[in-house]
Design goal:
- This protein has about 240 residues and is an alpha/beta fold.
- The protein is about 20% helix and about 25% strand.
- It contains seven helices and ten strands.
- It has helices spanning about 30, 50-60, 60-65, 140-150, 165-170, 190-195, 220-225, and strands spanning about 20, 40-45, 70-75, 80-85, 90-100, 115-125, 130-135, 150-155, 200-205, 230.
- The strands form two sheets. Strands 4-5-6-7-8-9-10 form a seven-stranded mixed sheet. It has a three-stranded parallel sheet with strand order 1-2-3.
- The longest helix has 10 residues, at about 50-60.
- About 30% of the residues are buried.
Length: about 240
Amino acid sequence: MLHAASLYPQEGIRHTPLQGVLLTDAELDHTLGLLHLREGARWSLHATRGMLDCMARGFDVVPSLRRYADIDVQEVPLDAPRTFREGDEAIRVRWLETDRDPPLYTGANDEVGGAGCALVLEDEGDGGKLVYAPGVAFVSDALRAACEDADAVLFDGTFWTGDEMQHVTGGTRDARAMGHLAIDGPDGSAAFLAELPAATKRYVHINNTNPVLDASSWQRARLRQQGLDVAEDGEELIL
């Protein structure tokens, strides 16, 4: 946020220019930040029914936030566009399912539709398209089609290999069990992304065990050879 001057308070130290939040899942690393928005006077929260149900089962933050701010919760349907307007500009957004596993904090083992999603954003003015997919357990036909038609793709780069956490931390779950496609390997996301026509293809949501965080690593070099890279803080994309 320090790299984004447009997000700085403009009307005093407790002001935020943020008008809303578009959730991609209900995991703690994507929802804990909502608590910091208690100082915003009014903002909207857009999420699938699956995400809202997950939070209600284990992290029911909305009632607490509403004691501080006027929050408008909007349930969004899967694969149905929703348009957000600001002056003469309009962005069309679709939520595409990428995961059905609920967050660990829910204590549930059943699948939840729309628990994790990618966002497909399209500028209604010039038609520029961006896919933001920070957590991808599977690539659906709809997500594949959206990525093939996008000008820029920001994709889940959590782990380099499927067994990364098992080797580094001694964990028992592999990448897929944690809701993420690994980057490397014949079934990895790099093979898929390298074939896309998008001019910009960046990895996001990098875990601290992932060697691609090191810009001088051979893993990063391999990505660049494939026309891929890792998104950097403060980076701006022009579609």
